[in-house]
Amino acid sequence: MRLVVGVGARRGVSADEVLELVGSVLREAGLPPAGVVEVATVDSRAAEPGLVEAAARLGVPLRGRCAEELARVAVLHPSEAVRGAVGTPSVAEAAALAGGGELLVPKRKRVPAGGAGARVTCAVVARSGARLPVRGPGYTGGDATFGLPARP
């Protein structure tokens, strides 16, 4: 399964904050972390050290997409606050969906202790052409054709 994780983040977010949210979202959805092939975000955040480090620790590229492109992507959870901050009503969902695919996990937030606003959001898309499990989390024996061992 080829997964794209879209990430929206405030300036100064740490790699640990990003990876904590991404890891928990993947676990809750029963998706394999090894399936992540790309982290995507808005181009104005693509040089943010926490995002760069998070993608590096995942071993995948970080792809920045322009706000105008992201603004054209239909999403489930648009935000006027995000539009005001970065010029598009969605970063996490739109960045994940911009390359095509099926939205598996809509936008999720990580709200820090103390109840301040979310510092990081993420959404997960199965890239077009990816095989989704027939039932249940993980992969099926048919995925062995993609180099994965068959599940008993």
CATH topology: Nucleotidyltransferase, domain 5
**Could you give the order of the helices and strands?**
EHEHEHHHEE
- What CATH first level would be assigned? Alpha Beta
Strand arrangement in the largest pleated sheet: 3-2-1-5-4
> How confident is the prediction overall: mean pLDDT?
85
Distance between the termini: 18 Å
Major β-sheet annotation:
5 strands, mixed
Shape: globular
**How many β-strand runs?**
5
Indicate the low-confidence ranges by residue numbers. 132-152
Number of distinct helices: 5
Radius of gyration: 15 Å
Classify the helix fraction into a percent range: 25-40%
CATH evolutionary superfamily: CobE/GbiG C-terminal domain
Task: Provide a concise account of the structure shown.
The protein is an alpha/beta fold. The protein contains 5 helices and 5 strands.
Characteristic key phrases:
single chain; 152 residues; alpha/beta; Nucleotidyltransferase, domain 5; five-stranded mixed beta sheet; 5 strands; globular
Q: What do you see in this structure?
A:
The chain is of the alpha/beta class and 152 residues long. The protein has one domain (3-146): CobE/GbiG C-terminal domain (Nucleotidyltransferase, domain 5). It is built from five helices and five strands. It has helices at 15-29, 49-58, 67-71, 80-86, 92-97, and strands spanning 3-9, 36-42, 62-65, 102-110, 120-126. The chain has a five-stranded mixed sheet with strand order 3-2-1-5-4. Helix 2 (49-58) links the parallel strand 2 (36-42) and strand 3 (62-65). The chain is globular, with a radius of gyration of 15 Å. The two termini are 18 Å apart.
